[in-house]
Write a structure and sequence with these properties.
- By secondary structure, the protein is mainly alpha-helical.
- It contains 10 helices and no strands.
């Protein structure tokens, strides 16, 4: 089964309320189109599911079957989502205000991870204080770049430097 991480990310975003169920359905439809479902009936059912209540149980079964105990951590999935958010921000589909709401929810849901402190803080401050726009931009670029390269939470954590994040402040 290819592209399972894509489904993991879509399920995480659906659970958090950041994405519609359609993204998971689209994943399943694409697997069918490419003949990558491997006769998995749950993928077929997911392709025809509608709404969160139908999609989540099917997607969870698929992820559990193929990942087993190796399920991706929410922090890792949030990091990959931040990479998507950075691209959306650069393309003008997200704003500092919309990102502030997202980062606040992530920060709480993930139980205040160290790597999200400055990003969340700088984003919140940038909504009201123009001098915080550049520190926010710098931290957003830094965090998104690390997550883009990370293959696991451990890989991200080994590359992350709190000192670098702390440097993204008003000078």
């Amino acid at each position: 089964m290819e592209q399972l991480t894509e489904l993991d990310i879509a399920v995480f975003q659906l659970r958090m309320g950041f994405a519609p169920a359609d993204r998971c359905v689209d994943w399943a439809v694409e697997r069918l189109r490419l003949d990558q479902e491997g006769d998995d009936l749950d993928v077929v059912l997911l392709a025809s599911a509608r709404g969160r209540d139908e999609v989540l149980p099917l997607a969870d079964v698929i992820i559990a079957r193929y990942r087993g105990a190796q399920r991706l951590e929410d922090e890792f999935l949030a990091g990959k989502y931040i990479v998507e958010l950075r691209a959306a921000y650069l393309a003008g589909r997200e704003s500092v205000s919309s990102l502030d709401a997202i980062f606040t929810r992530l920060y709480l849901a993930l139980d205040y991870p160290d790597w999200l402190v400055m990003l969340s803080r700088n984003c919140e401050y940038a909504t009201d204080v123009p001098n915080f726009e550049q520190p926010f931009e710098d931290e957003f670029h830094y965090i998104a770049s690390l997550w883009a390269q990370a293959e696991s939470l451990a890989a991200f954590e080994s590359a992350y430097s709190r000192q670098t994040s702390n440097g993204h402040d008003i000078k």
